[in-house]
Automatic annotation (TrEMBL):
This is Glutamate dehydrogenase. The record marks 165 as: Important for catalysis. The lineage of its organism: Bacteria, Pseudomonadati, Pseudomonadota, Gammaproteobacteria, Oceanospirillales. Belongs to the Glu/Leu/Phe/Val dehydrogenases family. Catalyzes the reversible oxidative deamination of glutamate to alpha-ketoglutarate and ammonia. The gene is gdhA. It comes from Halomonas qinghailakensis. GO terms for biological process: glutamate biosynthetic process. SUPFAM superfamilies: Aminoacid dehydrogenase-like, N-terminal domain (SSF53223), NAD(P)-binding Rossmann-fold domains (SSF51735). It catalyses: L-glutamate + NADP(+) + H2O = 2-oxoglutarate + NH4(+) + NADPH + H(+).
């Protein structure tokens, strides 16, 4: 069908130089071929043309004053991609690599991810090229206040509800919330990932990582296997990686790696979770310091590593959990993982595997859970936070975790059933994209041409 090529050509012209966005779009559109053969009415309603175009994109200047008294300027973004299923929902990413294309790719993925949760949330994303690394608390606060001074007029509990992503955690959400409240005079659930004693949900911080592990358990149990006793490779050292590691231990697996932008730790005895939390959540310092307490662990500096790939994927293990960032797992990495006998990959990050790497996993028919399904536990729990805020309740951790577990099981079932319906039972990429798309597209048709 020519529509994939035509759409990508049109996007390349109208929205130039957004390679990650084209990559995400191509994957979704390729997967929809069998659906369009059976349901051509989606073409008649021009759903593709509409769904690849954000409903609204906001770009703004963020000026702030650093500790030396100098004026700094960053770019701010919010892409309100699709509201067919509910208010725009998706995180904010603060990282120097962020461009409008990054935010568009993340927003596009978010539409289908949020649809898969079965909850009433549309897709959006935002962020800035601001680099939180090395900034003082006061600088972070001033930046967040300036960012919110523009964003507040575009968001609200029934219109758009941002949350965290890379570089945005509880500290940043706190400063953003404070400024929203100051500007609007309203104390409401306009952000998720809030502090636990002022409107946050128990279990939200852990949810993305826990969810990615629950998703892996679902994939494995369909093959009469489990994570018990498995050696696991985890990349990243942020919120998603930390709570992936925590849940892996709870389920009897042994996570042996983690990584940050400077290097990879391989601890064959199992990652020291308490130390990892201390280094990354409290001290916010490089993983290299892990060696001070565990001199027999291995540290592989990113500088000493070849361009094509990531050291973490060359280590032996049974299951892999990419929890760092997009395109961190290349085709060469996928081949190395398969050669080492990895049988399960569950993505905690957004689009961490390149297209070629995904193709290798699908060809090998291993249990492969794409990010938009496997990491949906974070945003799903954000919706649980919204529900608690609107009813002025706080649910116990057990209730939130029970719901998260059920949501992950339902997402897995939906992806697996849809993959079977279209004749490729092992292909959860196909299942996730068709199931997510169908829910959004049907709502768009019922709501008319808008
Ligand atoms: N940034 C997360 C994601 O990629 C969470 C978004 C949210 O909780 O709204 O899904």
């Amino acid at each position: 069908m020519p529509y994939v090529h035509d759409t990508l050509t049109r996007l390349a012209k109208s929205s130039p130089a957004q390679t990650e966005f084209y990559q995400a779009t191509e994957e979704v559109l390729e997967c929809l071929r069998p659906l369009f053969e059976r349901a051509p009415h989606y073409h008649d309603h021009s759903i593709i043309e509409r769904i690849v175009e954000p409903e609204r994109q906001i770009m703004f200047r963020v000026s702030w004053v650093d500790d030396a008294g100098r004026v700094q300027v960053n770019k701010g973004y919010r892409v309100q991609f699709n509201s067919a299923l509910g208010p725009y929902k998706g995180g904010l990413r603060f990282h120097p690599s962020v461009t409008s294309g990054t935010i568009k790719f993340l927003g596009f993925e978010q539409i289908f991810k949020n649809a898969l949760t079965g909850l009433p949330i549309g897709g959006g994303k935002g962020g800035s090229d601001f680099d939180p690394k090395g900034k003082s608390d006061n600088e972070i606060m001033r930046f967040c206040q300036s960012f919110m001074s523009e964003l507040y007029r575009h968001i609200g509990p029934h219109t758009d509800v941002p949350a965290g992503d890379i570089g945005v955690g509880a500290r940043e959400i706190g400063y953003l919330f404070g400024q929203y409240k100051r500007l609007t005079g309203r104390y409401e659930g306009v952000l998720t990932g809030k502090g636990l004693n002022w409107g946050g949900s128990l279990g939200r911080k852990e949810a993305t990582g826990y969810g990615a592990v629950y998703f892996a358990e679902n994939m494995l149990s369909a093959k009469d296997e489990s994570l018990q006793g498995k050696t696991c490779l985890v990349s990243g050292a942020g919120n998603v990686a930390i709570y992936t590691i925590e849940k892996l231990y709870e389920l009897g697996a042994k996570p042996v790696t983690c990584s940050d932008s400077k290097g990879t730790i391989h601890d064959p005895n199992g990652i020291d979770l308490g130390l990892l939390k201390q280094l990354k959540e409290v001290q916010r310092i490089s993983l290299e310091s892990y060696l001070h307490e565990h001199p027999d662990a291995h540290y592989i500096s990113a500088r000493d590593y070849p361009q094509d790939g990531h050291a973490v994927w060359r280590i032996e293990g049974d299951s892999a959990f990419p929890c760092a960032t997009q395109n961190e797992l290349t085709e060469a990495d996928a081949k190395a993982l398969l050669a080492n006998g990895v049988t399960c990959v569950s993505e905690g990050a957004n689009m961490p595997s390149t297209k070629e790497a995904v193709d290798r996993f699908l060809e090998a028919k291993i249990a492969y859970g794409p990010g938009k399904a496997a990491n949906a536990g974070g945003v799903a729990t954000s919706q649980l936070e919204m529900a608690q805020n609107s009813s002025m309740e706080q649910w116990p951790l057990e209730k939130v975790d029970q719901k998260l577990k059920q949501i992950m099981a339902d997402i897995y079932r939906q992806c697996a059933d849809t993959a079977s319906e279209f004749g490729e039972p092992d292909n959860l990429v196909l299942g996730a994209n068709i199931a997510g798309f169908r829910r959004v597209a049907d709502a768009m048709i019922e709501q008319g041409v808008i």
